[in-house]
Design a protein that fits this description.
The chain has 197 residues and is mainly beta. The chain contains two helices and eleven strands. It is globular.
């Protein structure tokens, strides 16, 4: 197990083109606010219904307690209605309705049974709107987060969120600004003071 005491160095991030942004190229204070190339492709081609959502990664290493642990996350979103359908043609805003699923797990490799110490499940339902007055892309919706346990071990949250998205280029690098504003609508019995943290 001593070989596992150092960071394994395995970090996988799935980024890709997650959002579409339509903007004109312009330069202000050496910051280019033109649309990054990945997003240009995103806006100009038909998108599949299933896409990555949040960051996906796998990382492992040892912490101060000398246990060797891994943490990983996978996340996908699915557009519920076909953009070419007759219903979406009559109600275009319904073509932006998505169902997403994110799962995050903490895995203890040092313990005898190699248990998962914690897993968080997060289904969500949201609209991803484009070219709004607030931002080029604006996501708004609901997500539920739970550890899947019951009784005293249960932990859950129900949250409403709004997430504007902006993108640009700085020093030849694409950047994305995606702040998330949220309000808890149900904190669960185990999280009464969640807002303090």
């Amino acid at each position: 197990m001593t070989a596992f005491k150092k960071i394994l160095g395995l970090v996988l991030f799935s980024t890709g083109a997650l959002f579409s942004i339509a903007s004109q190229a312009e330069e202000t204070l050496e910051v280019e606010t033109r649309q990054p190339e990945a997003l240009t492709a995103y806006t100009q081609t038909p998108l599949p219904a299933l896409l990555p959502h949040e960051a996906m990664y796998f990382v492992a290493g040892s912490g101060p307690d000398e246990d060797v642990k891994a943490r990983f996350q996978f996340s996908f979103k699915y557009r519920l209605l076909e953009e070419a359908s007759e219903y979406v043609q009559r109600h275009p805003w319904m073509g932006r309705l998505h169902l997403a699923y994110t799962q995050t797990s903490l895995w203890n490799w040092s313990a005898d049974s190699v248990p998962f110490e914690d897993t968080s499940y997060q289904p969500s339902l949201f609209f991803e709107l484009q070219n709004t007055p607030v931002a080029p892309v604006l996501s708004l919706g609901y997500f539920h987060e739970s550890n899947g346990e019951d009784g005293e071990e249960s932990r859950s949250l129900d949250t409403l969120f709004v997430q504007p998205v902006w993108a640009g280029r700085f020093l030849d690098r694409d950047f994305y600004l995606m702040p998330r504003f949220f309000a808890y609508i149900n904190k669960g019995s185990q999280n009464p003071d969640i807002t303090d943290y």
